[in-house]
Amino acid sequence: MDLxxxxxxxxxxxxxxxxxxxxxxxxxxxxxxxxxxxxxxNGIQIPIVLNHNNQIIDGQHRFWALKKLGYKVPYIKSKxxxxxxxxxxxxxxxxxxxxxxxxNYAAESGNNDVQEAIKIAKRWxxxxxxRLRPTTSLEILMEGRSHVGLLSxxxxxxxxxxxxxxxxxxxxxxxxxxxxxxxxxxxxxxxxSIKIMNYDLDDLDEEVIEVMCTDNYIQNFNKENDQLEYxxxxxDEAKQKLNR
Length: 244
Description:
This protein is α+β, with helices and mostly antiparallel strands. It has three domains: 3-96, Conserved hypothetical protein from pyrococcus furiosus pfu- 392566-001, ParB domain (Alpha-Beta Complex), CATH 3.90.1530.10; 97-161, no CATH class; 163-244. The chain contains twelve helices and four strands, in the order αβαββαβααααααααα. Strands 1-4-2-3 form a four-stranded mixed β-sheet. β2 (48-50) and β3 form a beta hairpin. It starts with a helix and ends with a helix.
């Protein structure tokens, strides 16, 4: 391997030299704060990695921290980098991507279903005063019976939106939120269980949910199977009470 011809190592204070990929993660202020402190105390230990178009493929947060501090930016330019989609792999081995990182990557890569799901998730987050997390919303809106496989589908750009069923689940959670509970109906375990029940029963009856929540001070369980079994049982009891 001819390293000298395949890689270029240099340093610059020309911040405009660096370009960004569409799927670069959005800067995280907590990460930036930690990096700035570390760079001040220890200097920069790992250079920025660029592709042949001067686009950052690893080290976006290091770049922003160095720029904010006014420091020069050391970089390695890889002339062998072939596919921009490899960027997600190299970044994921350093600082683990969460579901929203993958979602933003999928949306910016052209997945229209994810784009719409993110818009709905942001609206729901605002409507619920941030009690319903965007990741949980993506799970609710994902096509299929459960949330399993969310990260894989986002990563592979195969995420499919089931808007109608997602709205039904959201309506059920909002009905539950009107009642006193030991746990938030917008918690991931409860939301996932309601999604499964919605799928199995082809939508839930809001009058039954009202009775279910009125008769029970609904609690949260540590295991999702226990949570699902509990909610199924008290939902069936409410149905029998209403002769449904």
